[in-house]
Amino acid sequence: MSQVLSPGQLLSPEQIADLRLAGSKMHGADRRAFQAEMALKYCRGSARLSETVFGWKRQTVALGLEEKRAGIICVGAQSGFSGRKRWEEQQPMAAEALHQLAESHAQQDPTFNSTLAYTRLTAAEALTQLRAQGFSDAQLPGPSTMAEILNRMGYRLRKVVKAKPQKNFQKQTISSTISKLKTPHLTQAGSDA
Questions:
Q1: Is the confidence at residue 161, as pLDDT, over 80?
Q2: Within a domain: 38
């Protein structure tokens, strides 16, 4: 009859510490997959035993084992539903007024190389005009946030460069300066004759 060895007998304390360190450097689904692999390899697929040996939460290991069995990765809703909402979502009326205001000041790039609209409207001026339309300071963001909002809406806060035709300049070359020097002598010689 063969004797079943426990993971503590298979791995040295240094190896267990290395596996704990490796697991702590990973996050989310990667960590669960790693913990499930180690549980299968060293703990006979037991989440409770891996908790005892490695110090990992058995719920996390159990979820990793189930993800491995099913082939489906569980995704949390924390990233989708956490954090602060954008100003445009919090204040839709003010955002629409800002859009109309920026659109009235916007101009297309004169070179037509990009689809960006350039505007002479600064963030501070936009805030002033929105206050004039009746929005309170509590409804409006700060100037730097307003600049970010205008950039998100596709308006770049730059001076609008007017399209100017390019001037044709001839470069001075050595041959052109020599020909200018020779030309007066030929005309003088032709006038003497």
A1: no
A2: yes
